Amino acid sequence: MSMQNRDRPYDIVLFGATSFAGALTAEYLAGHAPEGLRWAIAGRSAEKLERLRDRLPGGAGVGVLRADVCDPASVRALADSARVVATTVGPYVTYGEELVAACADAGTDYLDLAGEPEFVDLMYVRHDARARETGARLVHAAGFDSIPYDLGVYFTVRQLPEDVPLTVDGFVTADAAFSGGTFGSALNQFARLREMAAAARDRRRHEPRLVGRRVSAALGAPRFAKEVGAWALPMPTIDPQIVRRSASALGRYGPDFRYRQYAAVRRLPVAVGGVAAVGAVAAAAQLPSARRWLSGRLRPGDGPSPEKRAKSWFSLRFVGEGGGRRVLTEVSGGDPGYGETAKMLAESALCLAFDDLPRTAGQVTTAAAMGDALIERLRAAGIRFRVASTR
Ligand SMILES: NC(=O)c1ccc[n+]([C@@H]2O[C@H](COP(=O)([O-])OP(=O)(O)OC[C@H]3O[C@@H](n4cnc5c(N)ncnc54)[C@H](OP(=O)(O)O)[C@@H]3O)[C@@H](O)[C@H]2O)c1
After folding, report:
1. What InterPro entries does the annotation carry (predicted)?
2. What is the pLDDT of residues 148-199, one digit of tens each?
């Protein structure tokens, strides 16, 4: 167990515990807390927090902290009170920076569910250096975006030879619905494409160049992928960027590492419909009036019903090649956006708080900061990582 900040009142504080994803994470932690875990739920409404605590198993032992991102002192006090803070308060580009800054200053480990590239790039430029000084680990995208991709590629690379060029293609299939918070964050990001590109450029100016190795990760071009028997389409998510950062941080990915990512769809009309739907939402998000109308369709706090979540699932298949070896792996589980996301966020918080991990600090990915330890935790929690075939 890391000795850093052992004198603080809480091992883990969950900020935004009253959000759709936050309440599921609180329930998961309450049901799986190791003996002696000191943890608290935090948010802006004391009344909502008390109601949540009353329905948690063992809730009497859970702390309640009031903090509002509009009140910086309350956010600083929250960061000072914990060894690890996990937050679901999004859109992160709107609400997230205060807590990242406070954790970087206080040397507090930080986790979020940000699938917003602009936010992650801005936080790198503004807070990575300070976090390295204090020892804080700043881990973004610790939910379905991007843990199964990041750890799935890490797991695949571990099945391939060392010190040779490697390629990995990732294919995702899923049946699931999303919440008001996720929809709002996605709309917000679609409306800020120019800001997103500027933040990426600024990050490139600040980030040290890789020396002696090559790493690339991109959205794949549309094609029929024989290897998985499906149409493979580009998927505009943050995951390839996270995978690229893990590959840059970890020499095990070899001297020349290439990753491409796709959504896999069996039937061509579904593929065409999917691309058209994402394109239509992205185009509508450019117009303030259309964006307002769209965001009214799914409100903050709304999300899929327990029945819908019980039927939801995901499967990520990876085809890895290098050094004369080819491997097909799979990461799979239940409801990706919420049930499994809550599990991933909570297990990541427990992992940072209690596991024996490589020494890292600053903005780090789940693979670089937690790798094998987090895979073991997620496997024990029912998320499958398996080698389907090798050649
Ligand atoms: N990475 C992934 O795979 C993944 C999966 C799921 C969700 N997400 C992301 O997670 C985030 C949460 O999603 P969700 O659907 O759970 O959101 P949500 O239900 O809309 O909740 C938003 C939360 O933000 C809180 N909040 C708003 N303003 C605040 C302020 N000034 N101070 C403190 N708290 C404030 C709200 O507090 P109140 O409860 O008091 O209103 C609520 O708890 C979104 O950004 C979403 O995109 C990512």
Report:
1. NAD(P)-bd_dom_sf, Saccharopine_DH-like_oxidrdct, Sacchrp_dh_NADP-bd
2. 999 999 999 999 999 999 999 999 998 878 788 788 888 888 888 899 999 9
- In a shared domain, residues 31 and 136: yes
Crossing angle (nearest 10°) for helices 117-134 and 193-206: 30
245 shares its domain with 290: yes
Domain count, the chain: 2
What are 254-273's pLDDT values in tens digits? 999 999 999 998 877 777 77
For residue 1, being part of any structural domain is answered with no
333 lines ligand 1 (CB under 6 A): no
**Residue 261 CB less than 6 A away from ligand 1:** no
How much distance in Å is there from the Cα of 77 to the middle of ligand 1?
20
Spatial contact of 369 and 358, defined as CB atoms under 8 Å apart: yes
Residues spanned by the domain of 115:
10-144+340-375
Query: Residue 44: CB within 6 Å of ligand 1?
Result: yes
What is this structure's pTM? 0.95
Question: Residue 179 in 3-state DSSP?
Answer: coil
Distance CA 155, CA 372 (A): 8
Ligand 1 contact, 132 CB (< 6 A) = no
Nearest to 4 by CA among 106, 100, 99: 106
Do 181 and 138 share a structural domain?
Answer: no
Question: Is the residue at 229 inside a domain?
Answer: yes
Both 202 and 350 in a single domain? no
